[in-house]
Structure prediction request, 271 residues.
Amino acid sequence: MERIMDLARARRSVRSFDGTAPNAEEKEKLLAFAAAIENPWGLGVEFRLLDAAEHGLSSPVITGERWYLGAKIKAAPHMEEAFGYSFETLVLYAHSLGLGTTWIGGTMDRAVFGRAMELREGERMPCVSPLGRPAAKMSLRETVMRRGVRADWREDFSALCFDGDFSKALTEAEAGDLAAPLRAVLLAPSAVNRQPWRMVRQGRSVHFFVRHARGYVSAAAGDLQKVDLGIALCHFALCAEELGLAPRFSLEAPALAAPADTEYIATYTLA
Ligand SMILES: Cc1cc2nc3c(=O)[nH]c(=O)nc-3n(C[C@H](O)[C@H](O)[C@H](O)COP(=O)(O)O)c2cc1C
Prediction:
């Protein structure tokens, strides 16, 4: 893969495709890469490449797509974070091959996608994605959608990163060599671009929290904002690994007061 930071910067949701299908070599590469993906929770994610015409798949915000990327996971604690981490790992790889994707957790017919994925009792499919080559020009629908969610906007570093506890903002300069993996987090995609991740630095550890908003939890998808946190952790870990910072994952909530609706998710400690 290219450098994670470059991929994180270059990636955007692609909602207009050029009407061609990924070729056999691309599909083979994606499936081989997907088979080796792991996440820190050790929960398996099963990926499938789905022919849109064969399974009758579509999304009202997507045009020109011929294939979808589907994935499912067994219902379990932390399944959303694990799903987010693994799916984003594959999304970044797809982008490194020149393929476009869009995380879809809302704008789809879940029954149709569930049938295509042979979703069984006890399995969950929080999101899917179209997969193909970006069209030369964005559709009107895509332009309107991007404007609606202010898709190019990201929060400032110091609005989401904290020093020691939630009472003190962390600046990029103060973050030192932790700044790059934190910047990779801030570039990540999130449901409705809410960017619900909050990070607290304590020494060489970064504690990740989710700031919950209403309307992101359902029986079928679980908590989409926890999926967002899995994506954030993926960007952080892949970037830190690439920089030789040897990220170590743990699930030990620090003893610090969190603001309302803010829940601890996980910690990475760097070398
Ligand atoms: C968990 C999740 C669910 C999403 N669901 C949808 C969706 O249902 N429909 C859609 O058009 N975009 C969806 N998105 C894409 C976001 O709107 C997009 O990532 C965000 O606006 C930032 O834009 P960007 O990806 O181009 O950087 C979803 C993203 C995530 C991470």
In short: The chain has a mean pLDDT of 97. The chain has two domains: 4-142, 157-269.
